[in-house]
Specification:
heterodimer, A: 417 residues, alpha/beta, Four Helix Bundle (Hemerythrin (Met), subunit A), Rossmann fold, 3 domains, B: alpha/beta, 5-stranded mixed β-sheet, 6 helices, 5 strands
Chain lengths: 417, 122
């Protein structure tokens, strides 16, 4: 099962690329033109795979090794497609180079070509724009999301470019699949049609700029385990102005009656607004996703949490006593930022397997050399990390220096752009 | 990834600029009508060249030997091959649901011209 999950995405990418290339593999053409055609079809297949990997479906994510892994591949596959598609028109033009320089330019130039080539150019320019915005992380999320949509439009225009060239097979099935993936993402997921309805039951401040929201299911609740995260959109309430867009939140508690609690730190426009949320606000929930604390071995464990990164560990502690000897290191900036610390202290006092180290680091990075156990004490230990990306990178590096292999270091990123 | 995006995009535009500059400044052998002798070709002779590797087409009264070009045509073969050995002006003018070929295609077509189509008499 593990091997199947590891190989699933590479196999999908390979099939999506090799299929159209095999169908359209040129015979008897010059080398440059053949390369141009193969690159175009390979790019087309990679884009289709990339669209599949942007879907936020629980079952799909489970089969493909998790949403975070899907998104990592989505980015890499999309970038590979972009590079191949940039090379596609250049290789076609190079076919006439250097003997027929005017013909080479006319093959490439939109000014001397008709609608099929115009569409190809428009598609490339939209891919260029969409990817440029992907890297512009300072753009507000809502604007970023709309600009990112230009990538999807670019894919559809690229396929239309092929139809205009008179190539309907296998473009029509690819176009149908691309439209299905994009439509499902926009209508089923982004608009919340496929998400479960919930209602905000309570919202409790737990630290500076951090609130814990309890969500009550209005229909069948989602299936969720400690350590997982959900995508939640909050809509307008009696006085609350909704965000309407889905954001990832780690579940901090799971009730037997289907209630879930999530920790929300004010990190952006929407999460800042959520600090003032009120009971009665409708919400929709996708999920659950993630395998962060799933399938934990019986070995002793080191949990390292930074700030809001305490929530997956808290969900597990709230679910009952631990069965493995566990050290929880909880880093926070100041006592006012130490969400749930008193509750965790009480849980640690009542659980002989849990030892707690809470440390206020101030605004400086924690001194990991003095904080982490020495190499001999880490032998055979499973390490679980959750917190800001910079902290995770630093801790991973320190653990590697102490001889902990990557197989024993577990973490999840929550970068969904 | 960001560096790859920036490098790939920059190289792409540099190469596009190089193709344009090459078309303007480098010596070239293309761009003109082939110096074919003014040969009059009957419809019967035209019809004898109806194969993929030996494909003549009459377009706007001019006959073109497109056998060497056909493998490079962007459309799939079954769109073009039925017009080999025939008068194909209508097909040429109405490709992709009514739109004609581009000026660049016209220029390219001219380089394959081998003669003119005889009027009516086979």
């Amino acid at each position: 099962m593990f091997l199947f999950r590891r190989l699933s995405i590479p196999l999908i990418v390979l099939a999506a690329t090799a299929g159209p290339v095999y169908w359209a593999f040129p015979e008897g053409l010059s080398a440059a033109r053949s390369v141009g055609i193969v690159l175009g079809w390979a790019g087309c297949g990679l884009l289709l795979a990339s669209l599949l990997l942007m879907l936020r479906e629980t079952g799909l994510a489970c089969r493909l090794g998790g949403l975070e892994r899907m998104y990592r591949w989505h980015h890499h596959v999309g970038m590979a497609a972009y590079v191949l598609l940039l090379t596609h028109p250049l290789a076609l033009a190079a076919d006439a180079w250097p003997g027929a320089t005017l013909l080479a330019w006319q093959t490439l130039s939109p000014f001397s070509q008709g609608p099929p080539v115009w569409l190809g150019w428009l598609s490339l320019l939209l891919l260029m724009l969409g990817l440029a915005t992907t890297f512009a992380t300072r753009i507000p999320y809502r604007s970023w999301r709309w600009l990112h949509l230009s990538l999807g439009i670019g894919v559809l225009l690229g396929l239309w470019h092929l139809l205009q060239l008179g190539i309907e097979e296998p473009v029509l099935p690819i176009l149908a699949l691309a439209a299905l993936f994009l439509g499902w993402r926009l209508i089923g997921e982004d608009s919340g049609l496929a998400a479960r309805p919930y209602l905000v039951q309570s919202a409790t401040p737990v630290a500076d700029e951090m609130v814990e929201i309890t969500l009550k299911p209005l229909a069948e609740p989602i299936a969720v385990k400690a350590g997982q995260f959900v995508l939640v959109a909050f809509f307008a309430g009696p006085t609350f102005r909704g965000c309407g867009e889905f954001h990832p939140f780690t579940v901090s508690a799971i009730g037997l009656d289907g209630h879930i609690r999530i920790g929300v730190k004010a990190l952006g426009d929407c999460t800042r607004r959520l600090q003032g949320i009120e009971p009665g606000v409708p919400a929709r929930v996708h999920g659950a996703f993630g395998t962060f604390l799933a399938e934990r071995p019986a070995a002793a464990q080191l949990w390292l949490a930074g700030g809001i990164g305490i929530t997956p560990f808290l969900a597990l502690l709230r679910a009952g006593p631990l069965s493995q000897p566990t050290t929880l290191v909880y880093l926070h900036r100041s006592p006012a930022d130490a969400a749930f610390l008193e509750e965790i202290r009480v849980l640690a006092d009542g659980d002989p397997q849990l030892s707690l180290q809470a440390l206020a680091t101030g605004s400086a990075p924690a001194d990991l050399d003095s904080l982490l156990p020495a190499a001999p004490a880490l032998a055979g230990i499973e390490c679980y990390l959750c917190g800001p990306p910079a902290m995770i990178a630093a801790v991973r590096q320190s653990l590697r220096k102490r001889g902990v292999t990557p197989r024993h270091i577990h973490f999840e990123n929550f970068g969904f752009r | 990834m960001r560096r790859l995006y920036l490098s790939a995009t920059l190289i792409f535009w540099l190469l596009v600029s190089a193709f344009w500059a090459g078309s303007v400044w480098l010596p070239r052998r293309d761009g003109g009508v082939a110096d074919a002798p003014e040969r009059v070709i009957s419809t019967a002779e035209l019809a004898r060249h109806a194969l993929a590797e030996d494909c003549w087409m009459a377009i706007r009264g001019q006959v073109h030997d497109l056998g060497a070009y056909l493998p490079e045509h962007p459309s799939r073969p079954d769109v073009v091959l039925p017009w080999c050995g025939k008068e194909a002006t209508e097909a040429y003018e109405t490709k992709t649901r009514g739109r004609r070929h581009s000026a660049a295609a016209d220029a390219m077509l001219a380089s394959y011209r081998i003669g003119i189509l005889a009027a009516d008499k086979p």
